[in-house]
Amino acid sequence: MHRAIIFDFDGLLVDTETAIYESWKEVYCKHGQSLELETYKQCVGSDFGQFSPETELEKRTGKKFDWPTINGAREQIVREQLSTQNARPGVREFIQKASGKGIRLAVASSSSRAWVAGWLEKLDILKHFHSLRNRDDVERIKPHPDLFLAATEAVGVPPGESLVMEDSENGLRAAKAAGIPCVIVTNPVTTGGDFSGALLQADCFTADSIKKLIA
Known about the structure:
Low-confidence stretches: none
CATH topology of the largest domain: Rossmann fold
Distance between the termini: 8 Å
Largest sheet: 6 strands, parallel
Radius of gyration: 17 Å
Helix content: 40-55%
Number of strands: 6
CATH architecture of the largest domain: 3-Layer(aba) Sandwich
Order of helices and strands: EHHHHHEHEHEHEEH
Strand order of the largest sheet: 3-2-1-4-5-6
Shape: globular
Structural class: alpha/beta
């Protein structure tokens, strides 16, 4: 059993990724374009440095857009859709059991601390985590290893004795770069990705293979 588990947040603990992708699809649709999932996946788990839906839409249409206004409206729709969202099935039970076994738990997310901490508190699982490391804490986010290395340092467990749980290809790349074994739990947006090198892969926390990690 690993001494620490480092979790991603978006798409892994809560499926925020589907609503965000759907919001971008709607923006593209309004301008006569389609945003293919395989194209969009490039920025999942990272930021627009990997792929920018904004830059891509302007390139396709040859137009400039008022992104602050568009994104403000889009993000409001996302928040409304996620207002009743809960943790993914099996997440609470997995985290509670891992915490009960004395495993050090942390979150390493490319999102903001306010976003992640707010969600963890809303779900009443923040108390189980020893540390949160977010884009506010490092110079480089995923697919660079900085977030995961910062998280292992924060919980006082070496990378080789830790485990990363992720849902995205960028997350897996970051874990591999940090030298930490990585387990993938996909969601509707990330399923079908290239997860070569992952310790194991499942589509939910209720899978037997995931439960056995802390059996």
